Amino acid sequence: MSFACGISVVLVSCNGDRKPVVSDSANPVVAKVPSSQPVGVNTGWDDASAGPVMLLAGGDDPSTVALVLPRQTDSTLSAAGVFPLDSLSNLSVELFGPEGIVGRSSLVVTSQKQPGEGCVAWPVAHLANNPPAPWKIGLVSGRATSIKLDSIEGMSPADSSMVSTELARAASEASVNGDPVFQGLHFTVQKAYRLSLGRTSVIVGSIVRKINEEANPREEHFLLVAESSESSGGKYVLSFQSRSAGSEDDIRTSSVIAAIRFVRNDRPAIVISFEYNEGGQVALLERTADHQWKITWRSAYTGC
Description:
- The protein is mostly beta strands.
- The protein has 3 helices and 20 strands.
- A 7-stranded antiparallel β-sheet has the order 2-1-16-15-14-13-12, covered by helices on one side. Strands 3-4-9-7-6-10 form a 6-stranded antiparallel beta barrel. Strands 11-17-18-19-20 form a 5-stranded antiparallel β-sheet, with no helix packed on it.
- Strand 13 (188-197) and strand 14 (200-211) form a beta hairpin.
- It is globular, with a radius of gyration of 19 Å.
- Mean pLDDT is 82; it is low at 1-20 and 26-41.
């Protein structure tokens, strides 16, 4: 059995397809996405702050969830025959989306096996009650508060133009060390959001530029974060970038799912999905200092 998540992050190709070139850094070094991680690697997940599990919305049924087990790596997840999930039964959870916290519920889970047939998938659970509104992720209750994401589509024309201009400028700065074949091409802002952290304004967006050659169409995608604060004189400063380049058929793309603030360490985080042609993974992009954001955790890859 496979489980298709509504935000296209539950299933990922594991058939050896070539991954596009990617880089995640404030000062990027282009590198390949690793196809696997060694057993026992520290995934970067902090149980004390974030809890033992992350939930992903399960598509058309708002009560169906994928249980992302954050301590699993590519190696351990593929080797897992059975998921013992009794400890998660009746766990109280809070549900988040771009607008903030959506609702609360508890988990109904049973132990289950991997789907087999060469596929790897997160186990499935259900919510005890249907949430009152669409949601994207869930965490154990009390671990995080919500941060509202203002989408560029809902902004005033002036604000929308400002965010697009700032992200295009940031993309130009981020692309200095990129593939020269894309130099001079137009940047298109696909999705963008603004969030407020006290006196600091943060914009995050997905930006793309394309080479429309019929024989070899290629794309370059950026996930960018920029901050404006008193320390920067009100100017937006590029604070994080992730770059992916390759053919349009296997390019890695990214989506912003939600923004939260962990209660234990008061650290803001943006939840990201990285998506490939056949699925993807989720990640935490955390603010570690002024004008500094870092991917602190990535989930294991799953799929067929």
